[in-house]
Automatic annotation (TrEMBL):
Homodimer. NCBIfam families: hisT_truA (TIGR00071). Pfam families: PseudoU_synth_1. Residues 8-102, 144-243 form the Pseudouridine synthase I TruA alpha/beta domain. This is tRNA pseudouridine synthase A. InterPro entries: PsdUridine_synth_cat_dom_sf, PsdUridine_synth_TruA, PsdUridine_synth_TruA_a/b_dom, PsdUridine_synth_TruA_C, TruA/RsuA/RluB/E/F_N. One of its GO terms (biological process) is tRNA pseudouridine synthesis. Formation of pseudouridine at positions 38, 39 and 40 in the anticodon stem and loop of transfer RNAs. Belongs to the tRNA pseudouridine synthase TruA family. It comes from Peptoniphilus lacrimalis.
Length: 243
């Protein structure tokens, strides 16, 4: 049978999600835990990869197994073999041809800014702690230039290797809750560092260093060097994947 699990993790202490030789990664820990649970080598298929320091509340992984472990107990058994900063929170059977990555319709990411003059130790590695005031109306105006199908080459990490840099963003929603500002990105897929570079650029606009039209100008340049800095990974969360 084909099993789909939902995974949450704190990415602080890992070298990203994808398995890397001799490095501690989320996928590496998860693969080992599933192998230990099922007592056999099991290939896993992940919905996406997150960078070093990025967190997830809704990563999905599927794998094929003939296990007799009850699905209601499977998350608990896998979690027994996982470190405390990675957790499986649900498991269910899906159609045999379901694939966590290729069956996905949309991905939802959230970037969290703790906007306060003084840093708070509780939110260390949980949010981008930014001490200067931000004009959200300017940031919202700049985001309008990014909605739809665009070539996001200017917002791709320099070390990324992809042939197609065209992506579709369906929406960018901004919500302020006391000192926290949440930026929710919904799209089909995203380039490496894409959301973090967009956020770094938008924060410069929110500070008043650039006008909102700057976002459009950067998009049209098709060159990473014209965009703003890459915002820290600690503020980014993979929230959910829609199937």
């Amino acid at each position: 049978m084909n099993i789909l699990i939902k995974v949450t993790y704190d990415g602080t202490n890992y070298h990203g999600y994808q398995i890397q030789n001799k490095l501690k990664t989320i996928e590496g820990e998860l693969s080992k835990a599933i192998n230990d649970t099922l007592k056999k080598e099991t290939k896993i298929y992940s919905a996406g990869r997150t960078d070093r320091g990025v967190h997830a509340l809704g990563q999905y992984v599927n794998f094929y197994t003939d296990t007799t472990i009850d699905l209601g107990n499977l998350p608990r058994v896998i979690n027994f073999h996982l470190p405390d900063d990675i957790s499986v929170i649900s498991a269910k059977e899906v159609p045999f041809d379901f694939h966590a990555r290729f069956s996905a319709r949309e991905k939802i990411y959230r970037y969290v800014v703790y906007n306060n003059k003084y840093r708070n130790a509780i939110y260390h590695n949980r949010a981008y702690q930014y001490p200067f005031s931000l004009d959200l109306s300017l940031m919202n105006e700049s985001f309008k230039y990014l909605i739809g199908q665009k070539d996001f080459k200017s917002f791709m990490g320099r070390d990324a290797i992809v042939k197609d840099t065209i992506r579709t963003i369906y929406s960018i929603k901004v919500k302020k809750d006391n000192k926290f500002i949440y930026f929710d990105f919904q799209g089909k897929s995203f380039l490496k560092n894409m959301i973090r570079i967009i956020m770094g650029t938008a924060i410069e606009i929110g500070r008043g260093k650039k006008d909102p039209i700057f976002m459009k100008e950067v998009l049209e340049k098709q060159n990473r060097k014209y965009a703003g800095p890459t915002a820290p990974s600690c503020g980014l969360y993979l929230m959910n994947i829609l199937y």
